[in-house]
Every structure is written in C-alpha cells, then in structure tokens.
Amino acid sequence: MNALEIRNLVKRFGGLTATNDLSFDLAQGESLGLIGPNGAGKTTVFSQIMGELRQTSGTITFMGEEISTLSTPDRIAKGVSRTYQVPRPFADLSVRENIRVGLMPDSLRAMIFGTGDTAREGEIAQSVGFATADLDRPATELAMGDLRKLEFARTLATGAKVLLLDEVFAGLTTGEIAMIAELIQDLRQRGFTFLMVSHDLPAMEPLIDRAIAIERGTLLANGSFKEVLADHAVRASYLGEG
Amino acid sequence: MNLRPHHFLLWAAFIALMFAMPQFVGNGTLRTMIFACYLAIFAISWDILSGRTGYISFGHPFLVGIGAYTTAILTRRYGFPVEASIPLAVLFTMIGGLIVLLPALRIKGSYFALVTLAVMELMYQLVPVVRPDLTGGTRGISRLPALTRGAENGYYLAAGLMLAIALFAWLLMRTRLGTALWAIGMNEESVRGSGLSTTRLKSFAFLVSAAIAGLGGAFYAHYLGTITPRAFFDINVLFQIIVAVLIGGAGTILGPIIGAFFMVFMLEWLRPFLPGQERFFVYGLIALLLYMYQPKGIMAIIDSGWAKLRGART
Q: A90, B192: Cβ pair inside 8 Å?
C-alpha cells in the first residue's frame, strides 16, 4: 500500500491553474523529492495534501483511505504532517512548550483534564538534536537551524509518519544544512516517509530515493534524481537550458 | 498542570490581603475598590479571548450588557428571584454572544475588531428603541434588587467574585488548553498545522470569556441598582477594559487585576486636582507613557524586577 496516492489533482485560482492534472505515488518508507522552478506550484501541492487548500478536482489517498475532504487536523491525525518554507514557531513559548502543542490531543476535555507527557516532550526534543538545557529556551532565542529542528520536533510530536518538508534547507548555513541532512537520514532509517521540496539540489540528492519535477503545476518527469535532471523538459524549465 | 506549594501560598496570601482590606480602609475607598473589582472581572474576561488568542474584541461591553440587561429585565419585569436571574443572564450572554459574535471569529485582525465594535454600537442604538417597555429605553431600568447592604458587604461580594474568577482563569490557563490558546495568538496556522482545531479552541475561549462577562455584568447591575444603555454599550467602557489589560499585562491573570486597580485609583486620586474631564487626559497620558515604556505592562516590570532581585542574590 502506498503512503500517498495523488490522482488527477487540479487547483485553479480564477484563471490560473496552479496544479494541472497532477498524479504521483509515494511508497511507504520512500523519500521523494519534488523539484521545479519558483512558482511551479510545489507548495500548493503540499497545501492541498494537508487540506490547507481545497483542490478543484482530483483525489488524495493516504494509506488507502481517501482524505480529500478531511480537515487539516483530521489529516494530521491520520499521520501526515508538514513543515513550512519559513519556520513558524510559537515565539514566546519554550522549546518544550512548542513540542507540547504538537503532542496535544485534539480534544478540549483531554487538554483541560489530561496530564502532559513531559518525558515524551524531552525525548522528541533530544531525537532532533536538542540538549536538555535547550528545553526551556524560548523559541525567539533560537538560530535558524534550531528553528528548523524545532519545526521537525513539533511535526514529529503529532505522531506523523509521513512528513512533507517544504524548502527544508532555506536560510541555513552549510553547517546547519549538514545537521538537518543528518537528521533526515536518521528519520529515514527509522522508517519515516518523506516528500521533500528544496532548491538546494546537491543537499537534497543523497536524501531522496526518487524525484518528480513539475512546472506550472504539470508533471514534467518522474524517476531517479539523475533521470529527472537529465530530462530535456526539466533542463529547459528548471535549469534554463535548451 | 504542574501546581507547586508556593502557588497555593501566593494565592492564599493574595486572598487574605484582599479580604483584610476593609480593616484598613474607609468606606469611600472600599467603594472605589468595588468598581476596580468589577473592572478587573471584565478585563480578565476580555483577556481570556483577546489577550490569549490575539482576536481583539471591541464588542466586549456588548457581552457585559447582555448579562446586566438580562438579570435586570428578569428581576424587574418578570419578578424572577436573583438566584435564578443571574445564572440565566450568564446563559443568555453565552447564547447571545454565540449568535452574534461567534461567526465573526472566522475573520481575523482588524476586521474582527471592527465587526465586534459594530455589534456593540448596534446594541447601543437598538436597546432604547426595541421593546422600551422591557429595556426602559434610554432611561434604562432602576431599583434593581440589591445583593448586599453597605460598602463592606458589597466589597466582599465583588472581591470574592473577582478572586473566584481569577483563580478559575488561572487554573484553566495553566492547562494544555491555556498553552494552545496562547499559541493561537502567536501563530494560528501552526496550531492548526499541529493537528488542533483552532475553531473549536477559539469558540471555547469565546464562551468562557462571554460567561465571565455575563456573570460580572449581572452582579455589577445589581450593585449599581440602575442600568442604562450608556453605562454598558459604550466606547468608554470598552477603553477602560482594554487599557486595564494593556497596562497590567495581557496574557496574565494578575495583570488585568493590577491594571484595573491602577486605573480606577489613578482616576480617583486625580479627582481633587482635576475634577472635570481633564483628568481623563492626564490618565490617558500616563497610560500611554507606561505603555511606551513597557508594552507588556506592569506585570512585565514586576517580573523583570523580581528576576533582577533573584540575580543579585545568587
């Protein structure tokens, strides 16, 4: 069973077609790169998978169950979650409290009367590379690399097994890119499934099993990273060749 | 919830201090404190919704007014006992708020604020003309049954109500729900992206906020004995509530209480020097300067002073 199956996905904003009859699969445990030039519609695909944008037509199936009409919290409860191009931390909350929000059940009663799992908060923080001393640091004090880690931690806290990573290396230094790449490799070994967007192709290449390329929401190529980059249409649109 | 012994000690000390007040101050000061207690209740109510989630409500007097008018109409027009009219006032405030203001939670920022302001102004215009036989028109309703006799008893009732509401709000905000509401104010999309239904959370915050506003409005109406549209559905009431929260410190429980007492007493202290409306100008100026100095309010000044003190000791 595939983790994700996207079929004939179309998204129109008035006269603009942002996603154009797009279909692809993501196998469980696979890491798939989604590449394309600026404005190709990569983030729009993510937003549709997460239910933040409702598709004009087409279907999205997650672990064999169609989720096209579910709300974002319901999709996250099924096990899919995303990170954003620009990290969106809860600035005045500590690292621990940011992770706590991800761990919360979507139930008022449980949120009021239930007890939190501080041990689990610490475990998740450590699993993405935070030290114990970092747990009470406010998010405002974190550098960009740590904010990315925090976003990973909050995403993992939701219990997601399929992670959509949007421009995961944007704004990072060389050292931070290596740190995040190592984290992704670690998560891959632990069985997580990834759909990943990045303009940093050299950094992304070792982290993916396969790639798809889109332009103006239309699928251009689907195959190994090398095959996709060698594709004539991809080179023309993405690399400006030919 | 992570409650520690010093939390209970601090609350016990605060409650003891409030209840010892009548031994140290005269009836005039007690009456001023009663107004401060009711303003603090309205400010806590506003803060639960707006201070936490960032949805700035300009229509809060509308909720306070529903509570006040409901209990006034039920007791004076229909002969309900106060024991029944006040719970019904809370219920009506929640229902009225749900019908009128809850849909507005779908819009954000200044649009939400403007819609809530429009609702309050609409109420001010409608109350005098729709069923004036019930609402008393522009003259309002007078001779409401009193809940207490004398300044001291009135103070104990107002302070007890304020402390009970403050303790309830404090306990609620220390739960994970409080953290989630706080997180909505920082980044609502990220809360939704963490798998939480923000509509449900905001609705809950709104209902709690409305219930407290209605409860405070109902008790306040019986304390005043007379209510008029201008006393509740008025922009000045709104400003007093918001300024109390901002001066004291939004997103805290003690902040709105401190802000309310600060404001009410400052106006009283200015009265002998500036008996006219000029004192509102001076009061506005002081509030503005304080806000410019520390936008997070008096609580932030206290917190930073406390941190410095602890730092100096270690």
A: no
